[in-house]
Amino acid sequence: MVQETKQFTIIVTFLTMFLFSFQLFPIVICDTRPIPSNDLKLNKWIDYNVKKFKEGKSKLPQMNSNLDGVQMNSNLDDVLAVAEAGVKVITVKRDGSGNFWTVTDAINSIPKGNTNRVIIKIGRGWYWEKVTIDRSKRFITLYGEDPKDMPQIIFNGTAAQYGTMNSATVAVESDYFVAVNIIFLNSAPMPDGKRVGAQAVAMRISGDKATFDNCKFIGYQDTLCDDRGKHIFRNCYIEGTMDFIFGNGQSQYLNTAIRSISNGVGFITAHARENETEESGFVFVQCSITGTGKAELGRAWKQSSRVIYAYTYMDSLILGKGWSDGMTDNEHKPVYYGEYKCYGPGASSSDRAKFVKILSDGEAKPFLSISFLDGNKWILPPLKM
Description:
Elements (H helix, E strand, L loop, with lengths): L1 H20 L17 H20 L19 H7 L3 E5 L10 H6 L9 E5 L3 E3 L2 E3 L6 E5 L7 E4 L3 H4 L7 E3 L5 E3 L2 E4 L16 E3 L4 E4 L2 E3 L5 E3 L3 E5 L2 E4 L1 E6 L2 E5 L2 E15 L9 E5 L2 E13 L5 E5 L2 E2 L8 E2 L11 E5 L15 E3 L2 H4 L21
Parallel strand pairs: 1-2, 2-5, 3-6, 4-7, 5-8, 6-9, 7-10, 8-11, 9-12, 10-13, 11-14, 12-15, 13-16, 14-17, 15-18, 16-18, 17-19, 18-20, 19-21, 20-22, 20-23, 21-24, 24-25
């Protein structure tokens, strides 16, 4: 009986992949229209995508109960469609009432080569852990059960102890990762300019096709390492002092609050694109930038750094020149720094550095669609449980 069940599951999976390969069900998941310019329209745009996703699922044939009766959408990556058809939920609770006490134990329970979505539902409270999800464990979701009292994953690793990249409280190296309602926090003290290796990462995302919804990233220098791969951040909060969004990711940040808490002059981004042929870049759409001290929107870590802000509120902490094209005063790199219809006291372009682009409609358009991330293949509607 077990052998027959396995054979049936293999046959269903094969048929599903076959249908996908011939695109017999051309259903749209994500809207390809430009991301809108204000909060109300953005919410309607997201709702539209969710509606289309549900409509797409309803038009596909009902799958057998061996796949939990979940209907697939053929525009998804094939492996993702199969993974979403076999969802498993496990729980982590500090009071011992869940399947596991710690996030690490829950992750360790997932086999290498996992092919189904595993949702780790985490109870409220703080979890003092240093978590790594290696590349062999795809399709993992960390889900905070209470969006009003989000669980916090906390550690105090620094570059002096682990190296910058490995100092992360949570490091994700696998593809198709999702986080919802989680606070990622590195509690190491603020760098004082004297201590060597004081950088401290709260989250490092190195896998491809990752989604963050309603998450917070809190630290000082190097808070969020958006390392590599395609990522989307929706309705998040990011706090830090220096280069606190850095890496070579190809990412969109939608409706995300960015708070600089530098005592002097800080830098929000440090993008690491090596050359102009790479598709990577940070795109901030409908975000807000507030905080203390002064800040610049970004500085070039690698040769061809690329960062764009669109429809974003910039408070008075943003310096007039806005950006730096190198990490030292004598560097001048061929960067791509763009601003499009931003507003607020820090958004004035009159004193911007000469290498900054005030984008036209046509220049901004490629960055204002989910197609920048090939998002119709992998971005799912916000998860609610």
